[in-house]
Write the C-alpha coordinates for this entry.
Amino acid sequence: MDVETREFQSEARQLLQLMIHSIYSNKDTFLRELVSNASDALDKLRLETFRDKDLVADTSDLHIAIEVDADQRTLTVRDNGIGMTHDDVVNLIGTIAKSGTAEFLDRLKQTQDAAASQDLIGQFGIGFYSTFMVADKVTLVTRHPRSTEGVRWESTGEGTYTIEDVADAPQGTAVTLHLKPADAEDHLPDYTSTAKLREIVKRYADFITWPIRMAEGDEGEPQVVNSRKALWARPASEVTEDEYAEFYRHVSHDWNKPLETIRMQAEGTFEYQALLFIPSQAPLDLFMRERKRGVQLYVKRVFIMDDCEELMPEYLRFVKGVVDAQDLSLNVSREILQQDRQIQLMRRRLVKKVLSTVKTMMTEKPEDYETFWREFGAAVKEGLVGDFENRDAILGIASFDSTHDAERKTTLAQYVERMKEDQEHIYYMTGDSRATVENSPHLEALRAKGFEVLVLTDPIDEMWVESVPGFEGKQFQSIAKGQVDLGTDEEKAEVEQRRQDFADLLAWMTEALSEKVKEVRLSTRLTTSPACVVGDAHDLTPTLEKMYRAMGQELPPVKRILELNPTHPLVEGLHKAFAEREDRSELAGTVELLHGTALLAEGGELADPARFSRLLAEHLQRTL
Protein backbone atom coordinates (compact mmCIF):
# COMPACT_ATOMS: atom_id res chain seq x y z
CA MET A 1 0.00 0.00 0.00
CA ASP A 2 1.18 3.56 -0.71
CA VAL A 3 2.35 5.44 2.37
CA GLU A 4 1.46 9.14 2.30
CA THR A 5 3.29 11.70 4.44
CA ARG A 6 1.36 14.80 5.46
CA GLU A 7 1.98 17.85 7.62
CA PHE A 8 -0.12 18.68 10.62
CA GLN A 9 -2.20 21.83 10.55
CA SER A 10 -0.12 24.65 12.08
CA GLU A 11 -2.19 24.79 15.30
CA ALA A 12 -1.86 21.02 15.67
CA ARG A 13 1.94 21.30 15.31
CA GLN A 14 2.09 23.90 18.08
CA LEU A 15 -0.16 21.77 20.25
CA LEU A 16 1.96 18.66 19.75
CA GLN A 17 5.09 20.51 20.83
CA LEU A 18 3.32 21.78 23.95
CA MET A 19 2.15 18.25 24.73
CA ILE A 20 5.60 16.73 24.21
CA HIS A 21 7.21 19.36 26.43
CA SER A 22 4.13 19.48 28.59
CA ILE A 23 3.51 21.48 31.73
CA TYR A 24 1.08 18.78 32.89
CA SER A 25 2.33 17.09 36.04
CA ASN A 26 -0.33 14.36 35.95
CA LYS A 27 0.42 12.48 32.74
CA ASP A 28 -2.10 9.74 33.62
CA THR A 29 -4.58 11.97 31.78
CA PHE A 30 -3.65 10.33 28.46
CA LEU A 31 -5.18 6.96 29.44
CA ARG A 32 -8.38 8.58 30.66
CA GLU A 33 -8.73 10.29 27.28
CA LEU A 34 -8.01 7.13 25.24
CA VAL A 35 -10.47 5.04 27.27
CA SER A 36 -13.09 7.79 27.01
CA ASN A 37 -12.63 7.93 23.20
CA ALA A 38 -12.93 4.12 23.02
CA SER A 39 -16.11 4.21 25.12
CA ASP A 40 -17.59 6.85 22.80
CA ALA A 41 -16.72 4.68 19.77
CA LEU A 42 -18.58 1.71 21.29
CA ASP A 43 -21.58 3.91 22.15
CA LYS A 44 -21.69 5.20 18.57
CA LEU A 45 -21.52 1.73 17.05
CA ARG A 46 -24.35 0.46 19.24
CA LEU A 47 -26.43 3.49 18.29
CA GLU A 48 -25.62 3.15 14.57
CA THR A 49 -26.70 -0.50 14.52
CA PHE A 50 -30.09 0.51 15.96
CA ARG A 51 -30.51 3.22 13.35
CA ASP A 52 -29.20 1.31 10.33
CA LYS A 53 -30.34 -2.32 10.18
CA ASP A 54 -28.22 -2.85 7.05
CA LEU A 55 -24.96 -2.03 8.81
CA VAL A 56 -22.80 -5.16 8.98
CA ALA A 57 -20.98 -4.96 12.31
CA ASP A 58 -20.13 -7.42 15.05
CA THR A 59 -21.72 -6.23 18.28
CA SER A 60 -21.64 -9.58 20.12
CA ASP A 61 -18.74 -8.67 22.40
CA LEU A 62 -18.21 -4.92 22.50
CA HIS A 63 -15.34 -4.07 24.83
CA ILE A 64 -12.14 -2.10 25.42
CA ALA A 65 -8.80 -3.89 25.72
CA ILE A 66 -5.57 -2.58 27.24
CA GLU A 67 -2.52 -4.53 26.07
CA VAL A 68 1.05 -4.18 27.33
CA ASP A 69 4.34 -5.39 25.81
CA ALA A 70 6.97 -4.64 28.45
CA ASP A 71 9.85 -5.84 26.23
CA GLN A 72 8.90 -3.56 23.35
CA ARG A 73 7.68 -0.86 25.77
CA THR A 74 4.35 -0.48 23.98
CA LEU A 75 0.89 0.14 25.35
CA THR A 76 -2.18 -0.43 23.16
CA VAL A 77 -5.75 0.71 23.85
CA ARG A 78 -8.10 -1.19 21.55
CA ASP A 79 -11.84 -1.09 20.97
CA ASN A 80 -14.16 -2.82 18.50
CA GLY A 81 -16.43 0.19 18.11
CA ILE A 82 -17.36 2.44 15.19
CA GLY A 83 -13.82 3.02 13.89
CA MET A 84 -12.85 5.69 11.37
CA THR A 85 -12.62 6.05 7.60
CA HIS A 86 -9.57 7.47 5.82
CA ASP A 87 -11.18 10.93 5.71
CA ASP A 88 -12.15 10.72 9.38
CA VAL A 89 -8.55 10.09 10.36
CA VAL A 90 -7.27 13.06 8.34
CA ASN A 91 -10.01 15.40 9.56
CA LEU A 92 -10.15 14.34 13.21
CA ILE A 93 -6.49 13.69 13.95
CA GLY A 94 -4.46 15.62 11.40
CA THR A 95 -6.51 18.78 11.93
CA ILE A 96 -7.93 20.58 14.92
CA ALA A 97 -11.25 21.63 13.48
CA LYS A 98 -12.72 23.03 16.67
CA SER A 99 -13.04 26.73 17.31
CA GLY A 100 -11.03 28.33 20.05
CA THR A 101 -7.74 26.56 19.27
CA ALA A 102 -5.69 29.75 19.26
CA GLU A 103 -7.19 30.74 22.61
CA PHE A 104 -6.38 27.28 23.97
CA LEU A 105 -2.75 27.52 22.89
CA ASP A 106 -2.44 30.97 24.39
CA ARG A 107 -3.93 29.87 27.70
CA LEU A 108 -1.82 26.72 27.79
CA LYS A 109 1.35 28.75 27.34
CA GLN A 110 0.33 31.24 30.02
CA THR A 111 -0.94 28.78 32.62
CA GLN A 112 1.73 27.90 35.14
CA ASP A 113 -0.55 26.23 37.65
CA ALA A 114 -0.64 22.54 36.69
CA ALA A 115 -3.94 21.86 38.47
CA ALA A 116 -5.64 24.76 36.68
CA SER A 117 -4.33 23.67 33.29
CA GLN A 118 -5.37 20.02 33.58
CA ASP A 119 -8.90 20.64 32.33
CA LEU A 120 -7.78 22.33 29.13
CA ILE A 121 -7.15 19.04 27.31
CA GLY A 122 -10.74 17.86 27.57
CA GLN A 123 -12.28 21.30 27.10
CA PHE A 124 -11.04 21.54 23.52
CA GLY A 125 -11.61 17.92 22.47
CA ILE A 126 -7.91 17.25 21.91
CA GLY A 127 -7.49 14.24 24.20
CA PHE A 128 -5.79 12.13 21.51
CA TYR A 129 -2.85 14.55 21.40
CA SER A 130 -2.16 13.96 25.10
CA THR A 131 -0.61 10.61 24.11
CA PHE A 132 2.53 12.47 23.04
CA MET A 133 3.15 13.37 26.69
CA VAL A 134 4.17 9.75 27.30
CA ALA A 135 5.07 8.33 23.86
CA ASP A 136 7.87 8.92 21.35
CA LYS A 137 5.70 7.50 18.59
CA VAL A 138 1.97 6.81 18.26
CA THR A 139 0.45 4.30 15.81
CA LEU A 140 -3.28 4.14 15.13
CA VAL A 141 -5.01 1.39 13.14
CA THR A 142 -8.73 1.73 12.52
CA ARG A 143 -11.58 0.47 10.33
CA HIS A 144 -15.15 1.65 10.00
CA PRO A 145 -17.74 -1.16 9.56
CA ARG A 146 -18.74 0.29 6.18
CA SER A 147 -15.15 0.20 4.91
CA THR A 148 -13.52 -2.93 3.49
CA GLU A 149 -10.06 -1.59 4.23
CA GLY A 150 -8.58 -0.09 7.35
CA VAL A 151 -6.30 2.90 7.84
CA ARG A 152 -2.91 3.04 9.55
CA TRP A 153 -1.76 6.41 10.95
CA GLU A 154 1.59 7.07 12.61
CA SER A 155 3.51 10.05 13.94
CA THR A 156 6.38 10.97 16.22
CA GLY A 157 4.76 14.32 16.90
CA GLU A 158 7.43 16.26 15.03
CA GLY A 159 5.10 18.03 12.61
CA THR A 160 4.27 15.28 10.10
CA TYR A 161 2.37 12.01 10.06
CA THR A 162 2.08 9.07 7.70
CA ILE A 163 -1.17 7.51 6.59
CA GLU A 164 -1.85 4.39 4.51
CA ASP A 165 -4.65 1.94 3.78
CA VAL A 166 -4.30 -1.54 5.26
CA ALA A 167 -6.14 -4.67 4.21
CA ASP A 168 -6.41 -6.68 7.41
CA ALA A 169 -7.55 -4.19 10.05
CA PRO A 170 -10.25 -5.41 12.45
CA GLN A 171 -13.39 -3.40 13.16
CA GLY A 172 -12.73 -0.53 15.58
CA THR A 173 -9.63 1.40 16.59
CA ALA A 174 -6.30 0.43 18.18
CA VAL A 175 -3.94 3.14 19.46
CA THR A 176 -0.42 1.88 20.18
CA LEU A 177 1.95 4.06 22.18
CA HIS A 178 5.70 3.52 21.89
CA LEU A 179 6.39 4.64 25.44
CA LYS A 180 9.10 6.98 26.62
CA PRO A 181 11.36 5.63 29.40
CA ALA A 182 10.05 6.08 32.91
CA ASP A 183 11.40 9.29 34.46
CA ALA A 184 10.61 10.14 38.07
CA GLU A 185 11.98 13.68 37.76
CA ASP A 186 9.63 14.37 34.85
CA HIS A 187 6.70 12.76 36.71
CA LEU A 188 6.59 10.02 34.06
CA PRO A 189 5.63 6.63 35.58
CA ASP A 190 6.27 3.25 34.00
CA TYR A 191 3.11 2.72 31.98
CA THR A 192 4.03 -0.91 31.22
CA SER A 193 3.15 -1.67 34.86
CA THR A 194 -0.24 -3.37 34.91
CA ALA A 195 -0.67 -2.33 38.55
CA LYS A 196 -0.27 1.32 37.53
CA LEU A 197 -2.70 0.90 34.61
CA ARG A 198 -5.26 -0.83 36.82
CA GLU A 199 -5.02 2.06 39.30
CA ILE A 200 -5.64 4.64 36.54
CA VAL A 201 -8.61 2.71 35.15
CA LYS A 202 -10.12 2.37 38.63
CA ARG A 203 -9.71 6.10 39.25
CA TYR A 204 -10.95 7.42 35.90
CA ALA A 205 -13.09 4.79 34.18
CA ASP A 206 -14.54 2.41 36.77
CA PHE A 207 -18.10 3.51 35.91
CA ILE A 208 -17.83 3.09 32.13
CA THR A 209 -20.54 0.61 31.09
CA TRP A 210 -18.32 -1.27 28.62
CA PRO A 211 -15.91 -3.93 29.97
CA ILE A 212 -12.27 -2.84 30.06
CA ARG A 213 -10.08 -5.94 29.83
CA MET A 214 -6.41 -6.27 30.70
CA ALA A 215 -4.13 -9.28 31.12
CA GLU A 216 -1.87 -9.57 34.20
CA GLY A 217 1.58 -11.06 33.44
CA ASP A 218 2.83 -12.78 30.27
CA GLU A 219 0.42 -15.73 30.36
CA GLY A 220 -2.46 -14.08 32.15
CA GLU A 221 -5.98 -14.19 30.81
CA PRO A 222 -7.59 -10.81 30.17
CA GLN A 223 -9.69 -9.77 33.15
CA VAL A 224 -12.34 -7.04 33.39
CA VAL A 225 -10.80 -4.28 35.51
CA ASN A 226 -13.73 -1.85 35.86
CA SER A 227 -16.87 -2.39 37.95
CA ARG A 228 -19.17 -1.10 35.14
CA LYS A 229 -21.69 0.13 37.69
CA ALA A 230 -23.64 3.13 36.43
CA LEU A 231 -23.35 5.72 39.17
CA TRP A 232 -26.88 6.97 38.65
CA ALA A 233 -28.25 3.46 39.24
CA ARG A 234 -26.39 2.94 42.55
CA PRO A 235 -27.85 4.05 45.89
CA ALA A 236 -26.62 7.53 46.82
CA SER A 237 -25.26 6.16 50.10
CA GLU A 238 -22.85 3.92 48.16
CA VAL A 239 -21.34 6.63 45.95
CA THR A 240 -18.47 8.79 47.20
CA GLU A 241 -17.82 12.42 46.35
CA ASP A 242 -14.65 11.35 44.53
CA GLU A 243 -16.67 8.97 42.34
CA TYR A 244 -19.13 11.74 41.50
CA ALA A 245 -16.23 14.07 40.67
CA GLU A 246 -14.60 11.49 38.41
CA PHE A 247 -17.85 10.73 36.62
CA TYR A 248 -18.37 14.46 36.12
CA ARG A 249 -14.92 14.70 34.53
CA HIS A 250 -15.84 11.84 32.21
CA VAL A 251 -19.06 13.40 30.94
CA SER A 252 -17.84 17.01 30.88
CA HIS A 253 -14.09 16.79 30.09
CA ASP A 254 -13.65 19.35 32.86
CA TRP A 255 -10.87 18.74 35.35
CA ASN A 256 -12.45 20.89 38.07
CA LYS A 257 -14.81 19.41 40.63
CA PRO A 258 -18.50 20.16 40.03
CA LEU A 259 -20.08 22.92 42.07
CA GLU A 260 -23.21 20.85 42.77
CA THR A 261 -24.40 17.28 42.15
CA ILE A 262 -28.11 16.67 41.49
CA ARG A 263 -29.75 13.23 41.62
CA MET A 264 -33.31 12.47 40.55
CA GLN A 265 -35.35 9.31 40.39
CA ALA A 266 -38.88 9.24 39.00
CA GLU A 267 -41.08 6.18 39.48
CA GLY A 268 -44.57 5.31 38.37
CA THR A 269 -45.99 5.36 34.87
CA PHE A 270 -42.78 6.81 33.44
CA GLU A 271 -39.50 5.88 35.10
CA TYR A 272 -36.17 7.59 34.70
CA GLN A 273 -33.04 8.40 36.65
CA ALA A 274 -30.90 11.49 36.33
CA LEU A 275 -27.45 12.43 37.57
CA LEU A 276 -26.74 16.08 36.77
CA PHE A 277 -23.89 18.42 37.62
CA ILE A 278 -23.55 22.19 37.85
CA PRO A 279 -19.94 23.08 36.92
CA SER A 280 -17.84 25.35 39.09
CA GLN A 281 -16.50 27.25 36.09
CA ALA A 282 -18.16 28.40 32.86
CA PRO A 283 -16.85 26.63 29.73
CA LEU A 284 -15.05 28.80 27.23
CA ASP A 285 -17.74 28.22 24.61
CA LEU A 286 -20.71 29.16 26.84
CA PHE A 287 -21.67 32.05 24.54
CA MET A 288 -20.36 30.63 21.24
CA ARG A 289 -22.85 29.75 18.53
CA GLU A 290 -21.47 26.21 18.04
CA ARG A 291 -21.57 25.39 21.77
CA LYS A 292 -23.10 22.12 22.93
CA ARG A 293 -25.33 21.32 25.84
CA GLY A 294 -24.09 18.62 28.15
CA VAL A 295 -26.85 16.13 29.00
CA GLN A 296 -26.54 12.61 27.62
CA LEU A 297 -29.58 10.39 27.05
CA TYR A 298 -29.50 6.69 27.90
CA VAL A 299 -32.28 4.14 27.61
CA LYS A 300 -31.95 1.23 30.08
CA ARG A 301 -28.24 2.12 30.51
CA VAL A 302 -27.62 2.01 26.74
CA PHE A 303 -26.16 5.24 25.39
CA ILE A 304 -28.54 6.84 22.90
CA MET A 305 -27.56 10.46 22.39
CA ASP A 306 -24.93 12.97 23.39
CA ASP A 307 -25.82 16.62 23.84
CA CYS A 308 -29.57 15.97 24.08
CA GLU A 309 -31.04 19.43 23.53
CA GLU A 310 -34.59 18.25 24.25
CA LEU A 311 -33.77 17.52 27.91
CA MET A 312 -32.39 20.90 28.92
CA PRO A 313 -33.31 24.40 27.71
CA GLU A 314 -30.78 26.69 26.08
CA TYR A 315 -30.35 28.87 29.15
CA LEU A 316 -29.25 25.84 31.23
CA ARG A 317 -26.84 24.59 28.56
CA PHE A 318 -23.98 24.47 31.07
CA VAL A 319 -25.62 21.63 33.07
CA LYS A 320 -23.81 18.31 32.49
CA GLY A 321 -24.83 14.76 33.23
CA VAL A 322 -26.90 11.74 32.30
CA VAL A 323 -30.61 10.96 32.05
CA ASP A 324 -31.48 7.25 31.83
CA ALA A 325 -35.07 6.54 30.74
CA GLN A 326 -36.74 3.14 30.98
CA ASP A 327 -39.59 3.45 28.49
CA LEU A 328 -38.15 5.06 25.35
CA SER A 329 -37.36 3.30 22.09
CA LEU A 330 -33.67 2.54 21.56
CA ASN A 331 -33.74 3.99 18.04
CA VAL A 332 -35.36 7.26 19.08
CA SER A 333 -34.36 10.27 16.94
CA ARG A 334 -34.08 13.97 17.74
CA GLU A 335 -37.20 14.61 15.64
CA ILE A 336 -39.19 12.08 17.67
CA LEU A 337 -37.88 13.50 20.93
CA GLN A 338 -39.14 16.96 20.03
CA GLN A 339 -42.69 15.59 19.91
CA ASP A 340 -42.44 13.06 22.74
CA ARG A 341 -44.73 13.91 25.65
CA GLN A 342 -42.63 11.92 28.13
CA ILE A 343 -39.46 13.76 27.15
CA GLN A 344 -41.26 17.09 27.57
CA LEU A 345 -42.42 16.02 31.03
CA MET A 346 -38.88 14.95 31.95
CA ARG A 347 -37.53 18.28 30.75
CA ARG A 348 -40.02 20.23 32.88
CA ARG A 349 -39.09 18.25 35.99
CA LEU A 350 -35.35 18.45 35.34
CA VAL A 351 -35.50 22.23 34.88
CA LYS A 352 -37.52 22.72 38.07
CA LYS A 353 -35.05 20.50 39.95
CA VAL A 354 -32.03 22.49 38.73
CA LEU A 355 -33.67 25.83 39.61
CA SER A 356 -34.79 24.61 43.05
CA THR A 357 -31.26 23.30 43.71
CA VAL A 358 -29.86 26.76 43.01
CA LYS A 359 -32.55 28.27 45.28
CA THR A 360 -31.42 25.96 48.09
CA MET A 361 -27.81 26.85 47.36
CA MET A 362 -28.63 30.54 47.95
CA THR A 363 -29.52 29.93 51.59
CA GLU A 364 -27.43 26.88 52.50
CA LYS A 365 -24.26 27.50 50.47
CA PRO A 366 -24.12 31.25 49.76
CA GLU A 367 -20.48 31.18 48.61
CA ASP A 368 -21.25 28.42 46.08
CA TYR A 369 -24.27 30.43 44.93
CA GLU A 370 -22.10 33.50 44.37
CA THR A 371 -19.75 31.36 42.25
CA PHE A 372 -22.71 29.97 40.30
CA TRP A 373 -24.19 33.36 39.54
CA ARG A 374 -20.83 34.90 38.62
CA GLU A 375 -20.15 32.08 36.14
CA PHE A 376 -23.63 31.39 34.75
CA GLY A 377 -25.95 34.26 35.69
CA ALA A 378 -25.85 35.90 32.26
CA ALA A 379 -26.91 32.60 30.64
CA VAL A 380 -29.64 31.87 33.21
CA LYS A 381 -31.22 35.32 32.61
CA GLU A 382 -31.85 34.24 28.99
CA GLY A 383 -34.62 32.08 30.44
CA LEU A 384 -36.52 35.21 31.48
CA VAL A 385 -37.13 35.92 27.79
CA GLY A 386 -38.35 32.48 26.71
CA ASP A 387 -39.29 30.27 29.67
CA PHE A 388 -42.53 31.84 30.89
CA GLU A 389 -43.41 28.83 33.04
CA ASN A 390 -40.28 29.22 35.19
CA ARG A 391 -39.92 33.01 35.01
CA ASP A 392 -40.75 33.56 38.69
CA ALA A 393 -38.33 30.82 39.74
CA ILE A 394 -35.55 32.40 37.66
CA LEU A 395 -36.27 35.86 39.10
CA GLY A 396 -36.11 34.26 42.54
CA ILE A 397 -32.55 32.97 42.04
CA ALA A 398 -31.24 36.02 40.16
CA SER A 399 -28.78 38.54 41.60
CA PHE A 400 -28.02 42.02 40.34
CA ASP A 401 -25.63 44.88 40.93
CA SER A 402 -27.34 47.83 42.55
CA THR A 403 -26.59 51.24 43.99
CA HIS A 404 -27.19 49.84 47.50
CA ASP A 405 -23.76 48.18 47.73
CA ALA A 406 -20.96 48.55 45.21
CA GLU A 407 -19.31 45.31 46.36
CA ARG A 408 -22.21 42.86 46.72
CA LYS A 409 -25.06 41.90 44.43
CA THR A 410 -28.66 41.92 45.61
CA THR A 411 -31.58 39.59 45.01
CA LEU A 412 -34.95 41.01 44.06
CA ALA A 413 -36.39 39.81 47.37
CA GLN A 414 -33.71 41.81 49.21
CA TYR A 415 -34.41 44.86 47.03
CA VAL A 416 -38.16 44.68 47.74
CA GLU A 417 -37.48 44.32 51.46
CA ARG A 418 -35.46 47.58 51.40
CA MET A 419 -37.99 49.55 49.33
CA LYS A 420 -39.32 52.79 50.74
CA GLU A 421 -42.79 52.67 52.26
CA ASP A 422 -44.47 54.53 49.39
CA GLN A 423 -42.25 53.13 46.59
CA GLU A 424 -44.26 51.47 43.84
CA HIS A 425 -41.56 50.42 41.36
CA ILE A 426 -38.34 48.45 41.18
CA TYR A 427 -36.04 51.00 39.56
CA TYR A 428 -33.32 49.92 37.15
CA MET A 429 -31.00 51.26 34.51
CA THR A 430 -29.21 49.37 31.73
CA GLY A 431 -25.80 50.32 30.42
CA ASP A 432 -22.45 49.10 29.12
CA SER A 433 -20.79 49.18 32.54
CA ARG A 434 -21.42 50.00 36.17
CA ALA A 435 -19.37 53.19 35.82
CA THR A 436 -21.54 54.37 32.91
CA VAL A 437 -24.72 53.83 34.90
CA GLU A 438 -23.45 55.33 38.16
CA ASN A 439 -22.25 58.47 36.38
CA SER A 440 -25.48 58.90 34.43
CA PRO A 441 -27.52 62.05 35.11
CA HIS A 442 -30.63 59.84 35.20
CA LEU A 443 -29.61 58.69 38.69
CA GLU A 444 -29.37 62.14 40.26
CA ALA A 445 -32.81 62.61 41.76
CA LEU A 446 -33.16 58.97 42.82
CA ARG A 447 -29.78 59.08 44.53
CA ALA A 448 -30.68 62.36 46.25
CA LYS A 449 -33.91 60.86 47.60
CA GLY A 450 -32.27 57.57 48.64
CA PHE A 451 -33.92 55.25 46.12
CA GLU A 452 -32.06 52.06 45.19
CA VAL A 453 -31.49 51.36 41.49
CA LEU A 454 -30.56 48.03 39.88
CA VAL A 455 -27.48 48.33 37.66
CA LEU A 456 -27.99 46.02 34.65
CA THR A 457 -24.94 45.67 32.39
CA ASP A 458 -25.31 42.24 30.70
CA PRO A 459 -26.49 42.43 27.06
CA ILE A 460 -29.39 40.07 27.89
CA ASP A 461 -30.67 42.60 30.46
CA GLU A 462 -31.78 44.84 27.59
CA MET A 463 -34.04 42.00 26.41
CA TRP A 464 -35.64 40.59 29.54
CA VAL A 465 -36.57 43.89 31.23
CA GLU A 466 -38.79 44.62 28.21
CA SER A 467 -40.74 41.37 28.61
CA VAL A 468 -40.90 40.81 32.39
CA PRO A 469 -43.62 42.93 34.03
CA GLY A 470 -42.51 42.75 37.66
CA PHE A 471 -41.66 40.79 40.78
CA GLU A 472 -43.93 40.11 43.75
CA GLY A 473 -46.42 42.72 42.55
CA LYS A 474 -43.80 45.45 42.07
CA GLN A 475 -43.38 46.70 38.50
CA PHE A 476 -39.98 47.24 36.90
CA GLN A 477 -39.35 50.87 35.93
CA SER A 478 -36.43 52.12 33.83
CA ILE A 479 -35.10 55.41 35.15
CA ALA A 480 -34.03 56.28 31.58
CA LYS A 481 -37.52 55.85 30.06
CA GLY A 482 -40.93 57.35 30.62
CA GLN A 483 -41.78 59.67 33.52
CA VAL A 484 -40.15 59.10 36.91
CA ASP A 485 -42.39 60.73 39.49
CA LEU A 486 -40.67 60.95 42.89
CA GLY A 487 -42.03 64.18 44.33
CA THR A 488 -44.43 65.00 47.15
CA ASP A 489 -47.77 66.69 46.43
CA GLU A 490 -46.15 70.04 47.14
CA GLU A 491 -43.23 69.31 44.83
CA LYS A 492 -45.62 68.13 42.11
CA ALA A 493 -47.53 71.38 42.30
CA GLU A 494 -44.26 73.29 42.00
CA VAL A 495 -43.26 71.22 38.93
CA GLU A 496 -46.62 71.91 37.30
CA GLN A 497 -46.18 75.65 37.83
CA ARG A 498 -42.72 75.51 36.25
CA ARG A 499 -44.13 73.62 33.26
CA GLN A 500 -46.51 76.51 32.64
CA ASP A 501 -43.69 79.04 33.02
CA PHE A 502 -41.44 77.13 30.59
CA ALA A 503 -44.21 76.19 28.12
CA ASP A 504 -43.16 78.62 25.36
CA LEU A 505 -39.46 77.72 25.64
CA LEU A 506 -40.23 73.99 25.56
CA ALA A 507 -42.45 74.35 22.49
CA TRP A 508 -39.79 76.41 20.68
CA MET A 509 -37.02 73.92 21.57
CA THR A 510 -39.18 70.99 20.44
CA GLU A 511 -39.56 72.70 17.06
CA ALA A 512 -35.86 73.62 16.84
CA LEU A 513 -34.77 70.03 17.58
CA SER A 514 -37.62 68.33 15.72
CA GLU A 515 -35.24 66.26 13.57
CA LYS A 516 -33.46 64.91 16.66
CA VAL A 517 -36.08 64.59 19.43
CA LYS A 518 -39.81 63.98 19.67
CA GLU A 519 -40.31 66.33 22.64
CA VAL A 520 -38.53 68.70 25.04
CA ARG A 521 -39.94 68.71 28.58
CA LEU A 522 -38.98 69.52 32.16
CA SER A 523 -37.36 66.79 34.22
CA THR A 524 -37.99 65.53 37.76
CA ARG A 525 -35.02 63.14 37.67
CA LEU A 526 -32.20 65.74 37.51
CA THR A 527 -30.58 67.64 40.37
CA THR A 528 -27.12 68.72 39.14
CA SER A 529 -27.01 68.16 35.35
CA PRO A 530 -28.68 70.64 32.98
CA ALA A 531 -30.30 68.04 30.72
CA CYS A 532 -30.65 64.35 29.89
CA VAL A 533 -32.08 62.25 27.08
CA VAL A 534 -34.77 59.66 27.87
CA GLY A 535 -36.97 57.28 25.93
CA ASP A 536 -40.71 56.92 25.89
CA ALA A 537 -42.03 54.12 28.09
CA HIS A 538 -42.24 51.62 25.22
CA ASP A 539 -39.34 52.79 23.06
CA LEU A 540 -36.33 50.62 22.28
CA THR A 541 -33.24 51.63 24.24
CA PRO A 542 -30.24 52.87 22.19
CA THR A 543 -28.30 49.69 23.16
CA LEU A 544 -31.13 47.43 22.04
CA GLU A 545 -31.44 49.42 18.84
CA LYS A 546 -27.73 48.83 18.14
CA MET A 547 -28.09 45.11 18.89
CA TYR A 548 -30.92 44.71 16.38
CA ARG A 549 -29.03 46.66 13.72
CA ALA A 550 -25.91 44.54 14.35
CA MET A 551 -28.08 41.48 13.64
CA GLY A 552 -29.05 42.98 10.28
CA GLN A 553 -32.53 44.20 11.24
CA GLU A 554 -33.40 47.57 9.75
CA LEU A 555 -35.28 49.79 12.19
CA PRO A 556 -36.73 53.26 11.77
CA PRO A 557 -34.77 55.83 13.82
CA VAL A 558 -36.14 56.19 17.34
CA LYS A 559 -36.52 59.81 18.43
CA ARG A 560 -36.07 60.33 22.14
CA ILE A 561 -37.07 63.03 24.63
CA LEU A 562 -34.83 65.83 25.89
CA GLU A 563 -35.50 66.65 29.55
CA LEU A 564 -34.32 69.93 31.13
CA ASN A 565 -33.45 70.63 34.73
CA PRO A 566 -35.34 73.90 35.42
CA THR A 567 -33.18 74.72 38.47
CA HIS A 568 -29.86 74.52 36.66
CA PRO A 569 -28.23 77.93 35.99
CA LEU A 570 -27.71 77.11 32.30
CA VAL A 571 -31.39 76.25 31.79
CA GLU A 572 -32.49 79.24 33.85
CA GLY A 573 -30.25 81.48 31.71
CA LEU A 574 -31.63 79.93 28.53
CA HIS A 575 -35.19 80.55 29.78
CA LYS A 576 -34.41 84.18 30.57
CA ALA A 577 -32.62 84.81 27.25
CA PHE A 578 -35.55 83.27 25.36
CA ALA A 579 -37.99 85.63 27.05
CA GLU A 580 -35.84 88.74 26.46
CA ARG A 581 -34.53 88.25 22.91
CA GLU A 582 -36.41 88.53 19.66
CA ASP A 583 -33.46 87.17 17.62
CA ARG A 584 -33.02 83.60 18.83
CA SER A 585 -30.55 82.34 16.19
CA GLU A 586 -27.71 82.13 18.72
CA LEU A 587 -29.96 80.31 21.18
CA ALA A 588 -30.60 77.63 18.55
CA GLY A 589 -26.91 76.76 18.65
CA THR A 590 -26.98 76.64 22.46
CA VAL A 591 -29.93 74.27 22.30
CA GLU A 592 -28.03 71.96 19.94
CA LEU A 593 -25.05 71.96 22.29
CA LEU A 594 -27.33 71.19 25.22
CA HIS A 595 -28.78 68.19 23.39
CA GLY A 596 -25.32 67.01 22.33
CA THR A 597 -23.86 67.17 25.83
CA ALA A 598 -26.87 65.24 27.15
CA LEU A 599 -26.17 62.50 24.60
CA LEU A 600 -22.49 62.38 25.53
CA ALA A 601 -23.30 62.26 29.25
CA GLU A 602 -25.16 58.97 28.80
CA GLY A 603 -22.40 57.49 26.62
CA GLY A 604 -24.27 58.07 23.37
CA GLU A 605 -22.96 59.04 19.95
CA LEU A 606 -23.35 62.37 18.17
CA ALA A 607 -24.93 62.30 14.74
CA ASP A 608 -22.60 65.09 13.50
CA PRO A 609 -19.49 65.44 15.74
CA ALA A 610 -17.90 68.03 13.42
CA ARG A 611 -20.91 70.38 13.70
CA PHE A 612 -20.96 69.92 17.48
CA SER A 613 -17.25 70.85 17.70
CA ARG A 614 -17.76 73.93 15.51
CA LEU A 615 -20.73 75.17 17.58
CA LEU A 616 -18.79 74.60 20.80
CA ALA A 617 -15.79 76.55 19.51
CA GLU A 618 -18.00 79.46 18.47
CA HIS A 619 -19.72 79.59 21.85
CA LEU A 620 -16.43 79.39 23.74
CA GLN A 621 -15.02 82.20 21.59
CA ARG A 622 -17.92 84.47 22.56
CA THR A 623 -17.20 83.94 26.26
CA LEU A 624 -13.63 85.31 25.97
In short: Residues 341-364 form the longest helix (24 residues). The radius of gyration is 32 Å. Residues 512 and 588 are 7 Å apart (CA to CA).
